[in-house]
Design a protein that fits this description.
123 residues, alpha+beta, Endonuclease, Chain A, three-stranded mixed beta sheet, 3 strands, 12% strand
Amino acid sequence: MSAVKSKGSRIEKRVGMLLKEHHVRYRSHSVTLPGKPDFYFTGLKTVLFVDSCYWHGCKRHGTTPKSNMAFWEKKLARNKERDREINRSYKKMGWRVIRLWEHDLARVIDTKALDAIKSLVRK
């Protein structure tokens, strides 16, 4: 697990490229905001998290390793609970939370992910 990056992953870079291509200004990885969002838009009071299918327990693509299953089930369940806690804390702060799944960015140009990003900036 020490090889897992906390920022600058392949999927984060892809979202960053999409944002730049559409001239959307953003900041990333705030240490002062809860959960250290991947991208945040202070003026819009909005944060954007890009969740990997593996680490955030995607129902379609997430898997549990076969070895040490008890540890991994507990670990992945805690990750999901932490995501819910972070969502609640932003809601209390009056911020919007957008979560994109890794599989939403799998295709070369995914219109669903792009539409989500565009709607984010328009509001």
